[in-house]
Amino acid sequence: MDTDVIVIGAGLAGLQCARRLQSRGHDVTVLEAGDAVGGRVRTDLIDGFRCDRGFQVLNPAYPAVREWIDVSALKMQKFGVGAVVNTAEGTSTLAHPLRHPDRALATLRSKHVPVSDVLALIRWIGPALLREPRAGKTAPHDQMLSTSLDRAGLTGRLRRDLLDTFLAGVLADSSGGKSAHYVRQLVRWFALGVPGLPQSGMQALPEQMFGSLTDPVRLNTPARKLKETADGVEVTTDNEVFRSRLVVVAVGPQHVAELTDQPSPKTHGLTTWWFRASEPLEAGKFLMLDAAGDGGGPAGPVWNTAVISEAAPSYAPSGEHLVQATTLLDRPDGLAEESAVKRDLARLYRTSTTDWEVITHHVVPHTLPAQPPPLIERRQQRIGDHTLLAGDHRDTGSIQGALVSGDRAARSATEFLARG
Ligand SMILES: Cc1cc2nc3c(=O)[nH]c(=O)nc-3n(C[C@H](O)[C@H](O)[C@H](O)COP(=O)(O)OP(=O)(O)OC[C@H]3O[C@@H](n4cnc5c(N)ncnc54)[C@H](O)[C@@H]3O)c2cc1C
After folding, report:
1. 46-59+71-109+131-172+267-369 domain in CATH 3.90.660?
2. Using one digit for the tens of pLDDT, what is the confidence trace for 90-122?
3. N or C end of the chain: which has fewer CB within 10 A?
4. pLDDT at 126 over 90
5. Is the torsion defined by CA of 241, 389, 263, 206 positive or negative?
């Protein structure tokens, strides 16, 4: 055998799996199709602007991040916990009352926050806030997100102007069809943490993990074929055949069926536009949500936008302003043209965007696994005598889920190798 374990894919799941196995003394070869580690967590540095490949944030409240990541080394830059809501009547900032006590009164008195909705929100998320919800094999009584919000009585403006739009952007899914159990977990972590961006971009997260590997990752090396043999596996790449006792397939959901006999889980996607704005903007460190559409939701293609350089100054050269705008691929205008997106941003920021320049634009069709109810939080990873499957699609679609999945696979691999 060339090695104990081959890990295919150097996203967060593959990296966590490899470093856990190496720390236990196992020989691990990591094969990565891309030109760097990180998978869905990559950052492009363009003319001094840091543009993540799809707007995303790191929530330090994730238990896996607290346990396995040196967050202080990432030098996090924090967003405001809340959102600026845009309606035809104007914009208002709704902020987490405990994180932003100076805004608590205004938030609680806002027309977007009726008391009946606050009570319904407490009914919906309260138990999850008190104790981390565990799905076990299958979440009991799980429902579609939209159904569970309806059943909790969360049907007023807080839902229409804030929650639905915020969650659609976070989940890359405007249908409300995701598992309510999964979304409750995410909302719990949002309530407990202050999400932010590392000083050198989201890619600093996988790079930190990569830095603790003892052996290099083979970049630009896609696995083309995987075959189980009597005593292990053979993984064929363009130039070599690798042999090991076990393989961990840690590819993204869209690639699962290329290497295994398992179906590729369905996914949802979004696009992120990155603009250089010509002047300072007033949205501050909060995400802006558009609720100016008829019956709620956005009136244009942009579901959320943020002046990233306000929250994360290192993302732009000094004196410059970086704005992200997110559209959803499950909407007819998900692939709106630059001119339409700029027009929409002019409406949202109430300023001219004519001089704004596009820095780059990322279309990410496989942002997150679909995860409809019932949530199966710890999916079976063993799919062959010598093959394990890892990735966010085996746990929960998130940085948390990817890390847990990689770690779980490492534990199973260690048990397997110990059996001799
Ligand atoms: C735009 C966007 C926004 C997001 N926002 C958030 C957020 O705010 N908060 C949050 O918690 N999560 C967010 N996520 C989700 C989070 O980034 C993912 O859940 C996580 O990164 C998934 O990691 P993974 O290792 O499971 O998969 P991936 O990152 O997809 O890694 C799989 C790796 O396998 C490699 N690979 C594929 N096929 C092969 C092959 N044949 N051979 C070798 N290598 C192969 C790929 O190149 C890739 O590097 C977001 C994701 C995106 C894209």
Report:
1. yes
2. 888 888 878 888 887 877 778 888 899 989 999
3. C
4. no
5. negative
